[in-house]
Amino acid sequence: MITLLGTALASEGTEFVYRGESDACEGCPYRKQCLTLSDGVRYEVTDVRDGGQTLDCAVHDGGVRAVEVEPTSITAQVPSKGAYAGSKGKLAGPCPHVDCPGHEYCVPKGAEMDAEYKIDEILGDPPQDYCALDRELTLVEFAPSEDD
User: Fold this and answer.
1) How far is residue 104's CA from residue 70's CA, in Å, rounded to a whole number?
2) 67-93 burial, b for 16+ CB within 10 Å, e for fewer?
3) CA 128 to CA 99: how far, in whole Å?
4) How far apart are CA 48 and CA 139, in angstroms?
5) To the nearest whole number, what is the mean pLDDT of the chain?
6) What's residue 145's pLDDT?
7) What does the alpha-carbon distance between residue 46 and residue 34 come to, in Å, rounded to a whole number?
8) What span, in angstroms and rounded, lies between the C-alpha atoms of 7 and 145?
9) Cβ neighbours around 9 below 10 Å, total
10) How confident is the model at residue 148 (pLDDT cuts 50, 70, 90)?
11) Is 101 in a helix, a strand, or coil?
12) What is the rounded CA–CA span in Å between residue 3 and residue 35?
């Protein structure tokens, strides 16, 4: 899928969560090419269009470039009970322990707390030695979103 992305993010392998239209997009001549993604979905840049020009943008200081993106998987921690490849899983819930080495997987960007996701792969034990909220967690890979 082709879209326009800020030049600071426009490199192969960059991952981002699309957050929808900004107020600054109103009246932009490139809206139809730029606003093609699904809100809240995590994407990965798979290609930067060669020879593409940098276009002015009211949102991105350095302008935007044409890139190809696709929805990407999300690494997360889920309750261990019932977590296996092919099953559906949910995040365990919010966590206030932002200094924990596993926090980014308990509250991963691009995943909603109450949503169910297909577990593509079991990655194993969490990066932290213990959970401060006394949760039994397993590190998994959620399948890419199928919204698009």
Assistant:
1) 22
2) bbbebbbbebbbebeebeeeeebbbbe
3) 11
4) 31
5) 93
6) 80
7) 16
8) 24
9) 17
10) very low
11) coil
12) 7
